[in-house]
Hints:
Blueprint: H1 2-22, E1 32-33, H2 63-75, E2 79-88, E3 91-100, E4 105-111, E5 115-121, E6 126-130, H3 132-143, H4 145-154, E7 159-161, H5 167-173, H6 177-182, E8 191-201, E9 204-213, E10 218-224, E11 231-236, E12 244-248, E13 256-257, E14 264-266, H7 267-275
Parallel strand pairs: 7-14
Antiparallel strand pairs: 1-13, 2-3, 2-12, 3-4, 4-5, 5-6, 8-9, 9-10, 10-11, 11-12
Helix pairs in contact: 1-5, 3-4, 4-7
Amino acid sequence: xxxxxxxxxxxxxxxxxxxxxxxxxxxxxxxxxxxxxxxxxxxxxxxxxxxxxxxxxxxxxxxxxxxxxxxxxxxxxxxxxxxxxxxxxxxxxxxxxxxxxxxxxxxxxxxxxxxxxxxxxxxxxxxxxxxxxxxxxxxxxxxxxxxxxxxxxxxxxxxxxxxxxxxxxxxxxxxxxxxxxxxxxxxxxxxxxxxxxxxxxxxxxxxxxxxxxxxxxxxxxxxxxxxxxxxxxxxxxxxxxxxxxxxxxxxxxxxxxxxxxxxxxxxxxxxxxxxxx
Length: 277
């Protein structure tokens, strides 16, 4: 499970980076979320020895059994926040997203050389707020270098709405689906699990579990040992990359609210502006 989840992030981030530099961008009306993604709190600490904690029978369960319980608990989540970093071709893409099963999502995705985009989504609408770098790349792709410079200044701090058929917008918004994919059950790919040590991960008491999939890819899972056995962190352990995901805010509400209309630019108006650049 963990290696597959990290791999899915890598694929989406790579696609987003490629499309943002080669395609257009658009979205729906603008919004501001009441949920603000947090910053990853770093690697887990794992003391050499620590007593078993009530909630997860770490001493009696096998690694596979612990992984199964963690997958079931995580799959039952109604909402979760994820902070992650994925490396592609030496460049690290970061994402900070909070999402629920109702379609609400709020967060940020930063892609090297492409820029940062704030993502807001409900079950019915999607809103993107690009930074200057992203605006420039998008406008340049649509209208040339002069349009790129103009857009970066003219639309600074604005949300882009409309253009639901634009591939870049769809791909960008799909980053919110990563949160939902993490909460899915194991895909059935054979993996072996080796129990590690107890410790504390992002302020939560956890047990580390090393997972090796059928391709030999190794990841370390950190599973909560108090309360429900949620997956708290997963990271690659067999490469120099820093690929990881931190999960938090389990079952906390995610609320998205529309911002003032004067902070919104419709995609059709955006295109019209480019024609005059």
